[in-house]
Amino acid sequence: MLSFLLLPLYTGILATAGFGRITVIFSYIAIFNVILAYGMETGFFRFYSKSENKKAVISTSLISILGSTLTFALVAFIFQNTMATATGIDLQFIKYAIFILILDALVIIPFAWLRANEKPMRYAIIKIVNVAINFGLCLFFLLALPGIAKDNPDGVLALLYKPNFEISYIFIANLVASAVTFVILLPIYLDTKYVFDKDLWKKMMSYSWPILVAGIAYTINEVFDKILLESLLPEDVAESETGMYAACYKLGMFMTLFATAFRMGIEPFFFSHAGTENPQKAYAQITNYFVILGSIILLAVIVFADVLKAMFIQNSDYWEAMKVVPLILLAGFFLGIYHNLSVWYKVTDKTRYGALISALGAIITIGINFIFIPIIGYMASAIATLLAYGTMMVLSYYLGKSRYPVPYNFRKILFYLGVSILFSAIAFYGFNRSLFAGIPLLLIFLALVYKLENDKLRQIFVKQKT
Questions:
Q1: Could you tell me the pLDDT band of residue 260, with boundaries at 50, 70 and 90?
Q2: CA torsion angle for 112, 116, 121, 127 (degrees, to 10)?
Q3: Is residue 360 over pLDDT 60?
Q4: pLDDT per residue as tens digits for the range 42-93
């Protein structure tokens, strides 16, 4: 939630075009983040959980990431001018992006090690420190520093201030936060005895490369629409439209945050319990709870959409794109369900199916955006995201049910999903986001959940209490 505090800051300081420019740059960073990870994080989980020589897995993974990151750094700095020309991004922003990418890549395995060893508090603290530094520096650079420079132009801090330098300040804040995170995790590098197991690395890469393909495809689904909007819309409105869409898209990230946090906790669980007796039953129960919580979040965000809009996007110039919020929320929900359903190809080492499913999603995203952005603008991007993730979810279920049957309670899942979507549509479109209609619908849905899940909830909380 701390990261959401940056949204009102950015949208309050920057015009829609400036926010659009930042969004496009961060979209490129997201794509390269996946490339530099090349599925090694998931591969690390898989081999760390089943290997007796866990130190070999750690050292081999660290050496692999170190080597690939240093190679990227060398190539990127040699061709930085070419990248600036190809993307249309200022060279100074390219330099910031390269350094951020390097630092973020180097902490991939340390963070994976924390998750695999079930150290959620340490993981969370480091992540929160990262966001807090980023947020604090953005506040300082964008809000405090201009006033300091104006009141005391001869002071030391005034030397840091440059007019019209807001976008650079945002990247500097991100860079400092990434550097501090790397320093905090550096002991994992220093405490490791480096031995490169070539055979192990080949097995890990064989497992991980489909994850890379799936990751690139997933990132295309998540961020490539912003790049295409800037490229396919008329030049005079491209950055402004992209900025409006990206800001309202962030409200849909409430669902993405929930799904991401859930996935981070559940991936290690999938692998650690794959060898237990009847793990499919546990997987089914977990998916059921995910759908219940996701349905509540979907409806709650829709009901309070105007409240959240005023809190996080205080500049009304951005509000034109609010109509994309229900589609993005539902798309994020479908993606979360897909991650739960994807257990079948991860625990059976059939990750190539994940690559194929995600690639299909990427094709849908790119195709719909290319065809319809010139016609209906950013609504095409929202529709493409929803159709891509919906297709991935359905396809994963049908491919998995014969290869790794899991006893999902689809009657209950479809009930919660259907009622939540129906109530959301009524609240958002039928009553024009009126709280007087939306809040009763939310309370009715919560009552339904309580009535149907009362016994299960009592069992969970009684066990925790005892």
A1: confident
A2: 10
A3: yes
A4: 888 778 877 778 888 889 999 999 999 999 999 999 999 999 988 888 999 9
**What tokens were used for 299?**
């409806």
Q: Furthest-apart CA pair in the chain: how many Å?
A: 72
Q: Using one digit for the tens of pLDDT, what is the confidence trace for 317-354? A: 888 899 999 999 999 999 999 988 887 787 777 878 88
Ordered by start, the domain boundaries in the chain are: 1-196, 235-466
In sequence order, which residues have a C-beta less than 8 Å from that of residue 278 and are 6 or more positions away?
none
Q: For the whole prediction, is pTM greater than 0.85?
A: no
